[in-house]
Each structure stands twice: as C-alpha cells, then as structure tokens.
Write a structure and sequence with these properties.
The chain is an alpha/beta fold. It folds into two domains: 2-200 and 383-404, Rossmann fold (3-Layer(aba) Sandwich); 210-381, Rossmann fold (3-Layer(aba) Sandwich), CATH 3.40.50.2000. The protein is built from 15 helices and 14 strands. Helix 3 runs parallel beside helix 5 and helix 11 (313-319) crosses helix 14. The relative contact order is 0.12.
Amino acid sequence: MQAQIVTTNYAPEPTGIALYTTDLAEMLSNSNVDCRVLTSLPHYPWWRVPEQYSDQIEGVYFINGVKVFRANHFIPRTFSAVSRARFECSLYRNLIRISKNVDRPNALIACIPTVAALYVALAIKKRCGVPLGVIVQDLSGKGASQSGQSGGSFVAKLAEWVEVRAIRKADAVVVVSESMRSALVDAGIKESVVTLIPNYSVKKFEPLDRNKARNRFAWNLSDFIAIHTGNMGAKQDLGNLIEAGRNLPDGVRIKIIGHGNQEGKLRKLGRDLSGVEILPAVSDEDYPWVLAAADVLLVNERASQIDMSLPSKLTSYLFSGKPVLAAVPLLGATAKYLEGLAAIVPAGDPTALFAGLMELKRDKALCEKLAEAGLVFAENNLNAEVGRARYQAWVSELTSRSARR
C-alpha cells in the first residue's frame, strides 16, 4: 500500500505544521505503508531557506525512512495579497511538475493551510483516480481576513471560495478543533466526512529542573521569566508583548524565541527595552529546556483571529507543567480550548497582558493550579500514542476506499 502526502511544511522545519506532517509520514512508514511526501523547500518559520538547510534543494531525499520529493518555489520575504498569490502559484506550478515523478499512490493526503497543496492533491486524485483525505490545520481564507494581511479582505473572499470548493471534493476531512469543524460545516462541507483529531504532542517531555535549565542558557535564577516560542508572524501579533513589556519591573523578563516574517519589525520595536529579549529558535534538544526555564508560557494572537487555527505550541506548553497566559480573542478557538487550563486576557490589550503577568508573579498557588490542570489535560488528551492511533484508523479507512474502487 502506498500513501502520498502533499504538504508545504515538512522536516527539517522545526515548528508548526511540519511537526505533524512529519510524524504522520513516519508513523505510516513504520506501519508498513510505503509513504511518499511531496513538499516544498524548508522555509518556515524563517521565510527563506536557512543556511543550515541550503543543501535541501529540489530533489529526492530519504528522511527517517520516508521518501521525500522537494520542489523549488518562490519564497516571499514580506507578505501582502500579491506576494501570497505569487507564493501559492509558484508552489502549485512546481509541485504539479514534481508530482509526475512520483508513483501512483493508493491514497492521497493533503495537509493545508496552503491552497496550492490542496489543489495539487486534487489534480493527482483526478489523474490517478484515488481517494483524497484532507487535514485542515489552518484555514487560509479566514486566515487572510483575520491576520491583518495587506489586501486581506479581497484575499479572504477568494481564498475561502477556492478552499471550500476544493475541500468539498475530498473523500474525508480531519480538523484539529471543534471551531474548525463548525466553520467547515457552516461553509457547506458534509458533517459526515469531517473527523476531529486534535493535535497531540510529537515531542516527549520529561521533568526538567528549572535552575539547571536557567544555567543552560545563562539566565538569571531569580528572574520571573515569561516565554513565547514559535512563529513571529502577523497572526501572532507579538507587538502586543513588546508593548506589555515597556513597564516591566526589575526582575521580570519577557523572552520571545523563534523566527518569522515579523522578526525584524519586532527587534526594532523592542530594541530599547531591557525587560524584553528576542532570541533565535532553539534546537529540538534545547526546546524542552527552554520551557523548563520559564515561569510562565505565553500565547498571543491578533484580536481578529477567531477560528482559523490553533497554535501548535499548545501541545508542548501544556505538557511542560508550566502555567500558560494567553492573550487571545475571548470568543475564539484558542480561548475555548484553554478554558480552565490557562489564564486568559483579551487579545490586543497590552495593559491586560501586563496585569495578567503580574498576577501570576504574585500568585504562586494560581500558577501551580494552572500548571497541574494543563498537565492533566495533556496526559489525558494529547498523548502521542492516542493521536497516532486516531490517524492510523483514519488512514486505514481512507485506503480501504481505494481497495473498494
């Protein structure tokens, strides 16, 4: 049995959707499925191919037993309606070209948010006559309208139309949150084809000592440190953290760790702030130590981001045993997901974020309560074995459709 995954995010990308597409492919490969991956150059979250991955050019690679086909494409350095369109068109053109070199699969899996990956998979489905499953990690149409992207209103209407039109042609659909399920059903997708499989933690977390973690990075043991990790993009709206950090008292620090297309802007905004530090992303080995070094872990979203996605960092945050402070839309998907598991303040309100941070600094009992609630939830709901079993069952059902054709 051969399965083919079409995605624009895959290893060695260190964060976001790539973690889940890579884990899915490797799980299938370890289950005696001949899994092939059609993907892009490693570009996220840097929005360029970093020097350490400059050898990952267009071609065929074997990564942990998975045969990976990479296509060259345009990578925008700044985002607007025009640059996003160029990005999607370049992806589509080059992935279609490379797809003709891949053997006919028994089943297809497309992982979005990129519309290009979805339409490439549809083209392969039509050419080969095989069933298609779509994993919706992010909604591009809603994303364009909710992320504050230049030209977002026009892009949103166009992207949402082409996205929904394509998803309707899928044989099976996975969503990662109830909000996404509702959004797709409201858009006309049959509820019977939609399966909810929440993201799980692909990384194992062992208890790590806070002081050892601080010493590993030469961070002050007595500081109260709040950490945000991951992409520095428009939808994260991390300027809110910069503004909240303008009045931090001595001994309180905010560390923003990662990369993204807003990184340069954030560095300029925070260059005169002693309490805010912007740091590059760390290795997989160091990431659990970063979480262990924190007193509080931060989630931040743009106020308009309601139901387009769930931050992938939530799985590792909740498994870390650290309290989470979320500055997110109060009626949005992330707030609903974190209800009872995190301290939640309104998005886009740096005063509220500052107050929430100071409350957690003062209230050790509240920190312990939130940390325990998050860890219990993670152990019961975000276990990797449970998540993989759900995907295994979903893929088995998808491939059985191929056998019946």
